[in-house]
Amino acid sequence: MRLADIHCHILPYVDDGAEHIEEMEALLTSAVEQGIEVICATPHLRHGMFESTDADIIRQYRRACDLIEERDLPIRLFLSREYFCDDAFLERLHQNSLIPMGFGSILLSEFSGRYSAVMIEGYLKKILDAGSTPLIAHVERYGCLDEEWIGRFVSMGAMIQINAGSVLGREGHRQKKLCWELMRHDLVHVVASDAHDPSFRPNELGLCANKIEHKLGQAYAKKVLWDGPVEILSLSKGE
Ligand SMILES: [Fe+2]
Fold this sequence. Notes:
Blueprint: E1 3-8, H1 21-33, E2 36-41, E3 44-45, H2 54-71, E4 76-79, E5 82-84, H3 87-95, E6 106-110, H4 117-129, E7 133-136, H5 147-156, E8 159-163, H6 164-167, H7 173-184, E9 190-192, H8 205-216, H9 218-232, H10 235-238
Parallel strand pairs: 1-2, 2-4, 3-5, 5-6, 6-7, 7-8, 8-9
Helix pairs in contact: 8-9
Bound molecules: fe (ii) ion (FE2).
């Protein structure tokens, strides 16, 4: 199955993802082995914690592109960010200084584990009002969100991403159960790896794809692992 991975931390020296070039290379090699053809690197941007500038991440993105070319890896690489929603994010949103995913206007958005569902809803409304579409990163992680809230966010126009590791049960029973419920009720737009490094938070998208295909069928697996992510990147607009 063709796979696209649009949430991962493969770029070195910019956040808590790959520590150095060798780790990035290991993550890229692992992606190729799993059949991943399209990757969107999404380094964190979080005020007070992960503050790499756009120039920093663009520099590392270029190094990654060079490596892909040198090694002749069959991967198409894009650059965006995983934006932590806070006041600093809202300021950037209003200044229009954010990097959307691919050629579209979708922003990978994460929230504090301390936010309430109502606060998350408030941020989603602000992103939508600004003309962008929020893609909620690893929605299963937020203890305040259940299927009803997530359904409400989808009705508002938000999109939903879940992590391959959570689908496989690496993050505990509650998260795994919620992921499968959301997929069964068609509330997921994309499954991504959120890989950070080759050993502790590796890329398990291939294994996850097999599980989804086995349980929910090939057409559904293709929808959340290829069609959905490719549509989010709006690849057709950039051709
Ligand atoms: Fe992430």
